[in-house]
# Entry
Amino acid sequence: MLRRLLGFRFRNKTAPTLSAAVRCLSSGSVDITVPLNFWAGRRRSSQESREKENVYEPATGRVLCHLEPCGGEEVDQAVKAAKSAFGPWSKMSGMERARIMIEAAHLIESRREEIAEMEVVNNGKSITEARLDVDSARLCIEYYAGLASTLAGQHVQLPGGSFAYTRREPLGVCVGIGAWNYPFQIAAWKSAPALACGNSMVFKPSPVTPVTAVLLAEIYAKAGVPEGLFNVVQGGQETGSLLCYHPDVNKVSFTGSVPTGQKIMEMASKGVKPVTLELGGKSPLIIFKDSDLENAVKGALMANFLSQGQVCSNGTRVYVQKDVLAEFVEEVVKRTQAIAIGDPLLESTRMGALVSRPHLDKVLSFVEQAKKEGATVLCGGERFVPSDPKLKSGYYMTPCVLSDCTDDMTCVRDEIFGPVMSVLSFETEQEVLQRANNTTMGLAAGVFTRDVTRAHRVVEQLKAGSCFINNYNITPVEVPFGGFKMSGIGRENGQVTVEFYSQLKTVFVEMGDVDSLF
Ligand SMILES: NC(=O)c1ccc[n+]([C@@H]2O[C@H](COP(=O)([O-])OP(=O)(O)OC[C@H]3O[C@@H](n4cnc5c(N)ncnc54)[C@H](O)[C@@H]3O)[C@@H](O)[C@H]2O)c1
Ligand SMILES: C[N+](C)(C)CCCC=O
# Structure
């Protein structure tokens, strides 16, 4: 029972009780052997013999499981399952859908530790953060369950007693395509509004982190959704492309890099399908000399080092007003060096492993390039090998603070997507606003100041979709999240997201005779 529930086996082959399993689940102790696809209500093994891809455990560098990318036949089966589930689900009332979604939220809460641990094993982030990600996923489902019964149109009285009304209707089969940095959260952030609006979904996780989205599929099924309402197909760009082109797919919601987002938009355009694009960022964090420096330093850490720095909205360009630069740098380096790096399953860890060896090497190469271009490494930026032998092949690095940075440096222009903070100085508000906005990206931005009028004046002029005043990377599901410019299209979370998962039908009702011109 436990093994089925948890979806994996233990290397010592015994399946202890749940509590013991939770206790004995440690890095390097898990092999995942269950199928990772899920459609028409249950896990599915791949029917097409395709080359299996290794999926790694970032904490140890060992193979965690194997992934078989889904081909056309399997994608078609999953879309067909979603299409058949759409019928009954879309005919339910919002309250009926809400009841089932609330049950799913309860099940997530009851399996919080298990889901969080599997997220850690597959993504490498600390258990402390993984629990918060699972909470955000649950809250998102609760939030949209609450909105499900509020989806309504409007009545418009017209001359002569005639009138019109609008109906807010679902889109049909929605596709979700996820990135590897928040696997379970992204699956929830996409499926919750989709299902609340009466749609069904086929979700494709990143092939780097295929494990936890299937747990969400199991939970939705157990909560009582119609068979096939939420499906998971595994694979990479080929599987993703098959989903985008599929004639029975009505919408694509994508989270990932800008180049891939552009391809998604192009593919969806063939079927004139609406897209949501949650893309990359290179966000500014502005610290004025009148800010509470203690909070500004903590804000800079929150803006750069969550999830090993692998966060789209990170404020990685930290602009500090000249008068407080030395004090800020001294304190931020001290706190960065104190971040506990190591086994992500340990309660004391605050920085786990980056998601893959190639990604670790890419981030380290950004630090080398920064040095070549004249930046100073104040701390970190090196490969880290924990003392525990089972972690020696894991993908760890020390969090890095760069100073003496200039706006033209690669580390300041390009998204690094790792624990690398670039510190820059500025003198005036006008200067820093021009520099902060001087990017093709526009996902997020932050400002620290005690001057409330300056805070709102600056935020008004920042070209970014998610802005923070005197904090950073706080994203309650009650408010929208998404980007300006090349950082994306549409929003996730908040009431507005209903617009991206539904469509309005206008009905005109003639109460008199046709007044024909002919
Ligand atoms: N804005 C946000 O909310 C947000 C959140 C997380 C990550 N991101 C961004 O994602 C990037 C890192 O994630 P990643 O490396 O997984 O991004 P990626 O673009 O490489 O992959 C994202 C997803 O797209 C799929 N994919 C790749 N090529 C495809 C194609 N041609 N057709 C269909 N699907 C395709 C991948 O399999 C994966 O599931 C960073 O740029 C980061 O900023 C943005
Ligand atoms: C929840 N965060 C921290 C805003 C991350 C959202 C997804 C971007 O990587």
